[in-house]
Specification:
Length: 324
């Protein structure tokens, strides 16, 4: 918890979400006062139950689109961890307004509020989706042009641009983290969650979206949080910096299925593939990160992708969280 010490008064958007609720617990354990801000669209108040017992914590149930409420709630804070966003990528593909509002406008409102109340540091949860189907693999942070293939990815890329311009123009500091797939208890979507749900319904057969050869990186939520805090401490004084945050190891989707099945004690499950090289429109079949930048700062995820999938599956299965 050393990394989480002395952060100042922390404002966490998306605090009731999967990553946000873990982050709040870390920041409180580090002795910081924390305000969580969330509209509970995908987050759950129950995930903040342990935080709520800490006097240093307060929760504001409100929307990033409510500028007045956001600005008022942010007054007196030193640092913003901006995680609030639409995270249902297929839903955003159906209605482009969802990512425009919750990712682009939401991030703009956060930065405007920071400017108004003079909060000077922002740590922004971006995503590997900003890279789209980038031809350079492993993909370093310096790759370009960045051509996302979902509105979610476009929303994150726009958010990165806004963080950069606000930092440069108004003397703020920004840390932008392009997360790979973060896994752990409380996650509400993603391949592990999906497979557990399906296998509980039918332990004999599993539908796998695409051809099963999609290959991604996975890392544990605690590694994600420690990576965020590590870079914010050790990356130097530049006004705005961008980091890939994940691992350079990858796992194929069929291997994820095998791990989940073995953790559920299932044997001989028949796999049915929906076919094609990707699971859904906007799915990037192969995501491979260049992690040199974070490694040069002395950080590396403790678990490889395969280990992270196994540990996250085990934790999800043993948690009280309903899946399915
Ligand atoms: P999540 O859905 O659990 O958390 C997002 C939170 O934001 C939710 O609690 C939701 O209620 C809140 N929210 C959404 N719109 C809001 C609005 N308009 N006003 C206020 N609150 C709002 O997802 P997560 O996995 O915890 O993701 C956290 C952040 O990390 C997101 O910004 C996401 O895009 C980013 N990210 C996550 C992953 C991953 O693998 N989980 C990967 C890349 C990036």
């Amino acid at each position: 918890m050393e990394l989480a010490g002395n952060m100042g008064r922390c404002f966490v958007t998306g605090a009731a979400g999967f990553i946000g609720s873990h982050l709040v617990e870390y920041l409180l354990a580090g002795g910081n006062a924390v305000t969580g801000y969330d509209n509970l669209s995908s987050g759950k108040k129950v995930w903040l139950e342990s935080a709520a017992t800490n006097r240093q914590f307060q929760f504001v149930e409100a929307d990033l689109l409510d500028e007045a409420r956001l600005t008022g709630a942010m007054e007196g804070h030193d640092v913003v961890f901006h995680l609030g966003a639409n995270t249902d990528i297929p839903l955003g593909n159906q209605d482009p307004r969802i990512d425009f509002e919750n990712c682009i406008k939401g991030t703009f409102n956060v930065l405007q509020a920071m400017r108004t109340v003079n909060t000077r540091r922002i740590l922004f949860a971006s995503s590997s989706t900003v890279y789209g189907e980038h031809p350079i693999r492993p993909t370093p942070e310096t790759s370009g042009p960045l051509l996302p293939i979902t509105h979610y990815g476009a929303g994150k890329l726009a958010g990165e641009g806004l963080v950069s311009s606000f930092c440069d123009l108004y003397g703020m500091r920004g840390w932008v983290y392009r997360f790979g797939n973060v896994v752990g208890p409380r996650m509400g979507h993603g391949v592990i969650f999906d497979f557990i749900r399906k296998l509980r319904q039918d332990p004999m057969a599993l539908e796998i979206l695409g051809d099963g050869n999609q290959e991604k990186n996975y890392f544990l939520v605690e590694d994600c949080i420690e990576g965020i805090l590590h870079a914010s401490r050790y990356a130097g004084e530049a006004s705005c910096q961008v980091f890939n945050l994940g691992t350079d190891s990858t796992v194929r989707v069929t291997e994820v299925a095998n791990i989940v099945e073995s953790e559920m004690g299932l044997h001989g499950v028949v796999h049915h593939f929906t076919g094609g090289d990707r699971g859904w429109p906007g799915d990037v079949p192969i995501v491979s990160y260049d992690m040199h930048k974070m490694e040069s700062l002395g950080w590396r995820a403790r678990a490889s992708s395969a280990e992270a999938v196994r540990i996250a599956t085990r934790r999800l299965l043993s948690s009280a969280q309903p899946v399915g």
